[in-house]
Amino acid sequence: MSGTQWIIFFFVIQLLHGLATWKLYVKAGRKAWEAFVPVYNAVVLMKIINRPWWWTILLFLPIVNLIIFPVVWVETARSFGKNSSQDTFLAIILLGFYNFYLSYGAKDLKYRENRSLHPLTEFGDWVSSILFAVVAATIVHTYFIQPFVIPTSSLEKTLLVGDFLFVSKVNYGARTPQTTVAVPMIHDAVPGTTVPSYIKKPQLPYFRLPASEEIEHNDIVVFNWPVDTLVDINNPYGEVRYKPVDKKTNYVKRCVGLPGDSLSIKEGYVYINGKKNELPERAKLQFFYTVILKNNVSQEFLDQYGITEYTRVFQLKKSIFENEKIQEYIKANGINLTVVSDDGEMIGFKGNVSQDMYDKLKVGFSDKALNINLTEDLAAKIKSNPNVISLKKDLSTQPENDIFPRSPEYSWNKDEFGPIYIPQAGKTVDLNLEVLPLYKRIITAYEGNTVDVKGNQILINGEVANTYTFKQDYYWMMGDNRHNSQDARMWGYVPFDHVVGKPVFVWMSWDSNGKGFDKIRWNRLFTTVGGEGKPTSYFIPFLVILAGIFAFNKFRKRKKKTA
């Protein structure tokens, strides 16, 4: 819905509320006109049902109001003597229209000004406590702090798979929900299913609260994955569906490029405005390397260096690999292969070997070569091992089809990329057919225009355009795990309206490969995400404070009993 449509909708609701309740206002000793004045009518209604005025604010908070409105409908009925289970059921199921019955159909209706607000049963008390706990948690989750778990190794060494984070929404400004009807604190699907946890329409216009800071170079940022249309994020080839911005999958990456920057990637390193990007101390870049050993690869070798991410190196007889027909087959099918070893009899190679090629040629695996994911420090240590013949970084040399902007005009890959301009709100760029692939998604998907090409002309919203002015800021998000990260190199810019927040705290860390108590990474509990040097755990101070609070509460209860 547009802003105008929402304004019309708001005033229609206000009119319906006035028509449904003005007689109730009069019975409660108020003026009839008070039921028709927007916002003020809610403040007066809170007085009538003997609830605090600030409940009015909750009525205008998306998602939270889905809980508060039914409570207000029930409280209104009870304020006029309608306390039965049937009254409660009808007040909720009729979505507030039960007030029309109370005003125009109910007989002997009397206002109960001093009614008790305490639930009459233990079950009612339990329901009341649960409702307001959910309200409080939803407010915190939506506007202040949201829990998040790290699912992949794209920021390995800084954030580990299994880290449970608290993500602050205050730092970059909390977004008000755009999806108005959704299950509180549930993201895009009901847990354990692919059933949406929300209704797509109506949608509120985008709005963001003031921020306490701006995104800076190398900040770790949580954002909504711009190209997410997957029903099941774990099934990239499965069913797709439209998702509102605030219901797209949450991703976490490092922001290496800011609005207005010129960015390029050379040999896997990011350059900003021609200068190599210097990462903070905790960040450790990782690349895949091909290692060739004198002896066979062993588990002992992997354990010695803590290697957990690796792939096997393919192997084929040299006479078969170099066969003219085989080489023609490889080229015809677009199979990119890189030779990593040649002992005169066997060729070791890596690349996107198809299942058909694997089966037909009976491709095997090398016993002495491996592709391993390493930090640069660890690569230097392994290279000095006397069992290592060679260790070489696996940098891409050929164009890759899945690299942004996925256009034949741009022959880039994950290690050699750009330069590109990162759009800034209010800035204007020249527009032509050459640069259109870089900005087309921004112009259409993120900023709501249509783009058509007729000959050499570009038409935006049906009019010829030679320039374009950006409406919002954009960012470039990448993982430190450069060869194992689904990031902006694949899908491009991240709009500011997709930014969720800033990870600030690791409150729990779970190692699925550990055993027993070692499954918990104790040294990472209650550690900050930012900062220099190794993470410092504040778990012990937390336990001390928790014990202090518990002891104080116990002392206070004892004091009350003896008083």
Give an overview in words.
The protein has 563 residues and is α+β, with helices and mostly antiparallel strands. Helix content is 29%, strand content 23%. It contains 15 helices and 25 strands. The protein has helices at residues 3-27, 40-48, 55-59, 64-79, 85-93, 98-104, 122-143, 299-304, 318-321, 324-332, 355-361, 376-383, 436-446, 488-491, 539-562; strands at residues 145-149, 163-168, 179-182, 198-203, 220-224, 250-257, 262-266, 269-272, 275-276, 286-293, 310-317, 337-342, 346-351, 364-375, 388-393, 417-421, 428-430, 451-454, 457-460, 463-464, 467-469, 474-478, 494-495, 499-509, 527-528. The mean pLDDT is 90.
Percentage beta strand:
15-25%
Strand-pairing-aware structural class: alpha+beta
Distance between the termini: 59 Å
What would you report as the Rg, rounded to the nearest angstrom?
30 Å
Largest sheet: 8 strands, antiparallel
Large-scale geometry: globular
Query: pLDDT average, as an integer?
Result: 90
Helix content: 25-40%
Number of strands: 25
Uncertain ranges = none
Instruction: Give the count of helical stretches.
Output: 15
Short description:
The chain is α+β, with helices and mostly antiparallel strands and 563 residues long. The chain is 29% helix and 23% strand.
Main attributes of the structure:
15 helices, 563 residues, DUF5684, alpha+beta, 29% helix, 6-stranded antiparallel β-sheet, 8-stranded antiparallel β-sheet, single chain, hydrolase, 23% strand
